[in-house]
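Here is the promised in-class demo. Please do not try to memorize the tokens; focus on the logic of going from shape to residues.
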């Protein structure tokens, strides 16, 4: 099923609705059955254009058509290129003239209107059934001190969330509507017009671009090493803006990039630190309450710390027990790696392993419970001392967490 068809089937509005009932149809997004819901108290909107749009739609039920018209006019005043706002206003004018139209009826949709319906659904869904600001994204378990912010993309919501680093813990800052690949997500090959699922870094900043990309673009490091291990290819995945004559694009309308409105991209730029800011892209991100999130974090950190201590103990059986049976480095499988470790460990009378700048992310979309761990490793022994940046991928097995892959990345 194509991404846009999935979106419509998942958040389908009831048929034969007049525009005055658009907000009632939108509230059905919360449970899919048309039960009445309401926008959460005093929502903080990502921007005033979106705020005016949502207030206009909700206002149809709560304050009436006149007030809703004021709000939709404000959205248009703020950005004269906003096609969705014009569509909603047109339906409101028809309703005021006594000729209501079925904005939400799929049978009445044209190819040009359907993407705007999709956009209305996901924007309303954010405020009817979105994560609360004190919920924590389950993929983000530990931010390194160098990572001042993390960007979390929930593709099922067409939303990018910004979190600040609060002593290693993510703290909600803001979020933005986004457009994704026209063929959905889980990119595997060049040209498939899908947005990748995974954990990436913003690697550069581009300006003075063709108008199509907006004023700024932030490329990410797709494909990363996990993508390459799993046979994925392609290139050129950016976070970027829209052409000057376009306010927003439909939820699934890009060649795989993540696209924001130009106003939102300018706001996002304040939270981007090139080469340091991680970008987590997942489908249906899980949001946890604080204690449950903390329990998952502590469980993994305990396994990681046990690995570090067992390496220091020089007890190779204990040390090797932390590695999965299908473990590989870039050059060796488990047996070859063990032989190398036995040889290098033979002359050591003591080992100390320091860990700093630790980040831990639950890797989305891998089909297994996988953790991506990155840290500065300060290794010292009686025969060797070095300092490297290491990355590991841990997998959850029946007996606990085990290392599936590790490499020195710097």
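The designed amino acids, position by position:
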């Amino acid at each position: 099923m194509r991404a846009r068809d999935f979106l419509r089937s998942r958040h389908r509005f009831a048929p034969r609705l007049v525009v005055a009932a658009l907000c009632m149809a939108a509230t059905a997004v919360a449970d899919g059955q048309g039960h009445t819901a309401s926008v959460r108290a005093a929502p903080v909107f990502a921007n005033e254009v979106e705020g005016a749009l949502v207030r206009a739609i909700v206002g149809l039920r709560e304050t009436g058509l006149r007030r809703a018209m004021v709000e939709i006019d404000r959205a248009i005043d703020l950005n004269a290129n906003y096609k969705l706002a014009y569509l909603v206003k047109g339906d409101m004018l028809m309703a005021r003239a006594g000729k209501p139209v079925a904005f939400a009826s799929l049978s009445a949709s044209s190819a040009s209107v359907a993407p705007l319906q999709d956009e209305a659904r996901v924007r309303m869904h954010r405020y009817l059934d979105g994560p609360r600001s004190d919920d924590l994204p389950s993929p983000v378990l530990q931010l390194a001190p160098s990572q001042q912010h993390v960007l979390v993309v929930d593709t099922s919501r067409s939303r990018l969330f910004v979190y600040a680093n609060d002593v290693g813990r993510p703290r909600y800052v803001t979020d933005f509507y986004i457009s994704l690949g026209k063929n959905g997500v889980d990119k595997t090959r060049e040209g498939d017009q899908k947005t990748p699922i995974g954990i990436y870094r913003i690697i550069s900043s581009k300006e003075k671009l063709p108008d199509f990309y907006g004023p700024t673009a932030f490329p990410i490091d797709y494909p990363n090493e996990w993508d390459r291990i799993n046979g994925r290819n392609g290139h050129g995945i950016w976070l970027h803006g829209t052409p000057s004559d376009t306010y927003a694009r439909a939820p699934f309308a890009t060649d795989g990039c993540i696209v924001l409105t130009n106003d939102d991209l300018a706001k996002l730029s304040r939270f981007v630190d090139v080469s340091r800011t991680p970008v987590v892209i997942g489908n249906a991100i899980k949001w946890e309450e604080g204690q449950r999130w903390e329990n998952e974090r502590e469980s993994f950190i305990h396994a990681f710390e046990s690995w570090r201590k067992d390496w220091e103990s020089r007890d190779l059986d204990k040390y090797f027990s932390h590695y999965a049976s299908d473990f590989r480095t870039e050059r060796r499988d488990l047996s070859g790696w063990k032989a190398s470790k036995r040889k290098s460990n033979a002359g050591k009378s003591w080992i100390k392993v320091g860990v700093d700048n630790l980040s831990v992310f639950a890797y989305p979309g891998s089909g297994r419970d996988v953790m991506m761990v990155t840290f500065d490793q300060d290794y010292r022994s009686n025969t060797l001392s070095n300092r490297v940046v290491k990355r590991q991928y841990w997998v959850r097995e029946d007996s606990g967490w085990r290392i599936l892959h590790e490499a020195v990345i710097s």
